[in-house]
Amino acid sequence: MKSLLPRRSFLQTAGLAAAGSLISDASAAALPAEEAPNTRPRLLTGCCAYSYRNYLGAGKMTMEDFFLKAVDLGVQGVDVTTYWLKSTDPAYLHSLRHLAFKHGLPFSGAAIKTEMCQPDPSRREEEVAKIRKWVDATELLGASHLRVFGGNVPAGATDEQGIEWTAETMKPACDYAAQKGITLGLESHHGITEKAVNIIAILRRVDSPYAGCNLDISNFPEDPYSQVESLVPYATHTHIRDWYGEPRKPIDLDRMWQLFAKGGYQGFMSVEYEGDEDAMTGVPRLVDRVKILCRKYSSI
Asked: 10: number of CA atoms within 13 Å, CB side?
């Protein structure tokens, strides 16, 4: 995955004043030209368990079934949406790890629900404890990335306050995750993280090489292309759909891939299917598109 050390180095030289202020322009929040990544893009096709949420939620598919389905799809990694794990018992997680190994199936990461944007310090402590629990489970599973959510901004609060609360929660969680070699990816989602500028402000305040963005390209209500472009330097994992907004508007995936390639992204482009078509036919269709684009724009 892309290292965030250049960003960390930049913050140390730029001083804390810039990190402490709310960035007003997403384009200005991107790394300066001299810090731009010079690595060649390495784009890998992945799939999220969430793509089969209707089957997993109804008990028609297990996580083991999902792994085998991913092998059939020919993806290069799986993102384990933890909602459908049977437990966090070490024996169970080790069995999943072994099954994936036997089929040559790497983990692109795991994903949990969190609400880090909490004004109450005790609630923030609870969120940190929850993340620590799932960092331990992620380590047992054998993955190196854990998706977390920022959550909603409480009524009457400002984005600046939400940024501070989220960063205060994520920082100690990252300190713990770093001890396990696990990166926390803050998803571009609803609430405090529906704007790229907010995500960048949070990550700069957390200031850890083990903090990044789980970049869901579909969760920006306005102009996803410029927002994705500003976040590519911080991306540690991606979620891919082919539409955004409500009502749904189509995403130009080729244009998106150009942004990731230009930014030198190295990591998984994980299908998180939420289309109207049944997942058994809709997921393979989207996976095939992702494979073509990864071959087109990747150095592998």
From this structure: 20
